[in-house]
Amino acid sequence: MKNLFHKTEKPVNHNTKLERKVKRGFRFYAVTVLSMSLVLGMAVTAHAASDPITVVNNLSDFIFGLIRAVGLILLGWGIVQVGLSLQSHDPSQRSNGFLTLAGGIVITFAKEILTLITG
User: Fold this and answer.
1) What gap in Å lies between CA 76 and CA 33, rounded to an integer?
2) Residue 33 vs residues 48, 83, 109: alpha-carbon distances, Å
3) What are the helix (H) ranges across 1-119?
4) Are 107 and 73 within 8 A, CB to CB?
5) Of the candidates 8, 24, 65, 73, which lies 20 to 30 Å from 40 by C-alpha distance?
6) Degrees (nearest 5) of the Cα angle 40, 65, 97?
7) Burial (0-12, 13-18, 19+ Cβ within 10 Å), 97
8) Residue 112 CB neighbours (<10 A)
């Protein structure tokens, strides 16, 4: 009678070296992004002050810090998409990757762009 609960055959590993490197690189990227977003998100606080302008400036800095974190995440995801599209030779994924990359750059530097526009 065949044992139904234990596999007797060894599993076949279909992962190539490149796939393992991509997975390891993505894990490293994900851990880095999550760590940095936690560090940046918890480091910026909006302290209350007696001057109302100071309160508004602190809140503005806090909100732009959150926007910068989202922009960095999009920037990293765009880099990953472009890299994967170069590996798979997919032009539509490549264009989406470059659009995400450009959007991430714009969102990351939104405060500087607004400051440049308004003077």
Assistant:
1) 8
2) 29, 17, 17
3) 17-43, 52-88, 91-108, 110-118
4) no
5) 24
6) 90
7) buried
8) 11
Which residues have a Cβ under 8 Å from the Cβ of 3 and sit 6 or more positions away?
A: none
pLDDT in tens, 4-22: 666 666 666 666 777 888 8
State the CB neighbour count (10 A cutoff) for residue 111: 15
The residue written with tokens 């003077």 in the block is 119
> Hey, what amino acid is at 19?
E
Q: Which amino acid is at 72?
A: L
Q: CB of 73 within 8 A of CB of 33? A: yes
| CA 65 – CA 39 distance, rounded (Å) | 11
Instruction: Tell me the per-residue pLDDT of 34-88, one tens digit each, with 9 for 90 and over.
Output: 888 888 777 656 565 677 888 888 889 999 999 999 999 999 999 999 999 888 8
Longest dimension (CA), the chain: 82
